[in-house]
Design brief:
The chain is of the alpha/beta class and about 325 residues long. It is about 50% helix and about 10% strand.
Length: about 325
């Protein structure tokens, strides 16, 4: 209901803008016809007319943009609220069950496992929101280390398989051509977040079965590319760039009931660009899968003597993806 109301508001402002432009055109033409012999006044009227039209058009554009921005923010707040309330309610239910009646040891241990999983999900949501705020700071300085991408991707795949309880063949990293090492200078924590978001996104948007293939390669001699391809719901042709916007979710996907905050792919692209790279998406169409490509500049060969950053060290952040 709220979405339909906003659609109606957008349509109202567009219609109002068109009517005002039409009225301005009619008045201006009539004024020129009545004063056709007064050239100076006619020229002055045309200038005022152009300014009026420009003002009306800009006003309409700004209004529509503001409405859409508010709509995305409301959607984000609803998604975050859901992502926070669901694990909290689950943990509370388990605790109340343990408090009210005796539970067998096996079931008690399973309750502990479930509560830990819910707390990890809750922590991941909070950390993702905080990370989005940190990445909004353009001049963010951190020490960068030499990172080998293949062990980092392998670690992220293991985390994803464990988190979603998948079989090992559900997410597979193909061998790197030539067995070369792809090393980049970067922040291991941030790159881990980006890769986890991509994998999590690919898994969540494969409701009919998870078949995710990852590949690492060198392109144009100076770039390392990570491609993650799924066989899931795919993307409409006009959504390949929009999905990387903050809070954005593909319209019409609410019926799929896929959880997310609308921040996952925004974080991926922001992290990639802070490392001098980029993130892009491609899809043959709806229900034909999606390929997301993360591109990063290879480390300078002179950096090979530096101590590589360990991909396995530090804390694992299991971000929540947001394609739609």
């Amino acid at each position: 209901m709220n979405f339909s109301r906003r659609r109606g508001t957008i349509a109202f402002f567009i219609t109002l803008g068109v009517l005002l432009v039409g009225l301005a055109v009619t008045l201006n033409i009539g004024w020129i016809v009545l004063n056709e012999r007064k050239v100076a006044l006619a020229v002055f009227g045309i200038i005022l007319f152009a300014l009026l039209i420009a003002g009306v058009v800009l006003n309409t554009v700004f209004l529509v943009r503001e409405i859409r921005r508010n709509e995305r923010q409301d959607s984000f707040l609803n998604a975050v609220t859901h992502e926070l309330k669901t694990p909290i309610a689950s943990i509370r239910l388990y605790l109340e069950t343990l408090q009210r009646r005796p539970v067998e040891e096996a079931q008690r241990q399973q309750f502990y496992v479930n509560m830990l999983a819910d707390s990890d999900r809750l922590l991941a949501t909070v950390e993702q929101v905080l990370k989005a705020g940190q990445l909004g700071q353009r001049h963010r300085q951190q020490n960068r280390t030499l990172i080998d991408l293949e062990p980092l991707v392998t670690e992220c795949i293991e985390v994803t398989l464990q988190r979603h309880h998948l079989s090992p063949d559900s997410v597979v990293l193909q061998p790197v051509p030539g067995g070369v090492q792809l090393r980049v200078m970067g922040i291991a924590e941030d790159l881990r977040i980006a890769i986890l978001n991509l994998l999590d996104n690919a898994v969540k948007y494969s409701p009919e079965g998870v078949h995710v293939r990852c590949s690492l390669a060198i392109t144009h001699y100076t770039w390392a590319t990570l491609q993650i391809t799924d066989t899931g719901v795919g993307l409409p042709p006009n959504q390949h760039k929009r999905i990387f916007r903050r809070f954005y979710r593909v319209p019409g996907r609410t019926m799929v009931r896929i959880k997310g905050t609308g921040l996952g792919l925004f974080l991926v692209r922001s992290i990639a660009r802070q490392h001098g790279g980029d993130a892009t998406a491609s899809s043959p169409g709806p229900n034909l899968g999606t390929t997301v490509t993360l591109t990063l500049p290879l480390a300078n060969p002179s950096s090979a003597t530096e101590r590589p950053g360990s991909a396995a060290k530090g804390r694992s952040y299991e971000g929540v993806g947001n394609r739609a």
